[in-house]
Specification:
single chain; mainly alpha; Rhopdopsin 7-helix transmembrane proteins; 3-stranded mixed sheet; 3 strands; Olfactory_GPCR; G-protein coupled receptor; transmembrane helix; receptor; G-protein coupled receptors family 1 profile domain-containing protein
């Protein structure tokens, strides 16, 4: 037990002290947040209101959109506020943002694996798709995704929050993350680093392996398609998905799966923009809005909206003299 002045709030440095650069970054991050929020909310509303989209694939897309909303709403509003107001955050606020961000990060990694497995069964084992991916299985997979990621973030947040912080309170990042916080602790962090490293290896590398293996089988199945047009359509879809998945996993692995002593926070926070802001903005476009079924559902919703907004005619009969129209003959 030592007499220490404990840190009660942190100063988030953000990206730059230069006012001119802040003016450029604010609209960029505001645009990313609006695109991510509106795109993912649109996906949730479209799938929820369209019975034709109540299938396993779109069920997982709703979960992915929910995760992206959670991630961006945890990070970007505070970042935007810090650009125009104070950049300090309380210790409790830091832990809260850390908790929800880590939760969304783990859930997104696991959801990519669940979605890849769903596509593998649909393409490689179509005759067994209904039995293997029934409603109960989908709910069980989604529940496991949220529960495992919640357990991971609870353990890491609790052990990180118990560390003493009695020196510098300057966080060289633009949001609350484990690596920059460990560098500020005035106590050994080897246990925390080992726990975070183990969780990241299991979640990131394990999910990445499952995803790549599933897509490898999918591509092998596509190569057996005799139609060249069918192969092009399938490869177009898979290439878009693989681009997003590879971008997300590569940045997460680069940031987390290495010793804390090798962190270069000035460079790492630029890489973090990919999985906190760019990927949630691209996911609705890549996974959903390029899909013909989703576009058809969007057209139906827009047509219903126009029908509701169209002016209605008089309630009385249009015949002169108030005469009623003769009854129509009913079909047998």
């Amino acid at each position: 037990m030592m007499n220490q002045t404990l840190v009660t709030q942190f100063l988030i440095l953000g990206f730059s002290e230069t006012p001119g650069l802040q003016i450029l970054l604010f609209p960029a991050f505001l645009l990313l947040y609006m695109v991510a929020l509106s795109g993912n909310l649109l996906i949730v509303l479209l799938i929820g209101s369209s019975p034709a989209l109540h299938t396993p694939m779109y069920f997982f897309l709703v979960n992915l959109a929910t995760v992206d909303i959670l991630c961006t709403s945890t990070i970007l509003p505070k970042l935007l506020g810090s650009m125009v107001a104070g950049r300090t955050i309380s210790f409790g606020g830091y832990m809260a943002q850390l908790f929800f961000f880590t939760w969304s990060l783990g859930a997104e990694l696991l959801l990519f694996s669940a979605m890849a497995l769903d596509r593998y069964v649909a393409i490689c084992r179509p005759l067994h798709y209904g039995a293997l991916m029934g409603p109960g299985v989908c709910v069980l997979l989604a529940s496991a995704v949220w529960a495992v990621s919640l357990t991971n973030t609870t353990v890491n947040t609790v052990f990180t929050g118990r560390l003493p912080f009695c020196g510098s309170n300057v966080v060289e990042h633009f949001f609350c993350e484990i690596p920059p916080l460990l560098k500020l602790s005035c106590a050994p962090t080897r246990l925390n680093e080992a726990m975070a490293f183990t969780a990241d290896v299991v979640l990131a590398l394990g999910s990445f392996s499952v995803t790549m293996l599933s897509y490898g089988c999918i591509i092998a199945s596509i190569l057996r398609i005799r139609s060249a047009a069918g192969q092009r359509r399938a490869f177009s879809t898979c290439s878009s998905h693989l681009l997003v998945v590879s971008m997300y996993y590569s940045t997460v692995v680069y940031t987390y799966i290495r010793p804390a002593s090798s962190y270069a926070l000035d460079k790492d926070k630029v890489v973090s923009v990919v999985y906190t802001s760019v990927a949630p903005s691209l996911n609705p476009l890549i996974y959903s809005l390029r899909n013909t079924d989703v576009k058809a559902a969007l057209r139906r919703v827009l047509s219903r909206s126009r029908g509701l907004c169209a002016p209605r005619g008089p309630a009385t009969s249009p015949l002169e003299g108030g005469q009623q129209a003769p009854p129509r003959a009913s079909l047998p």
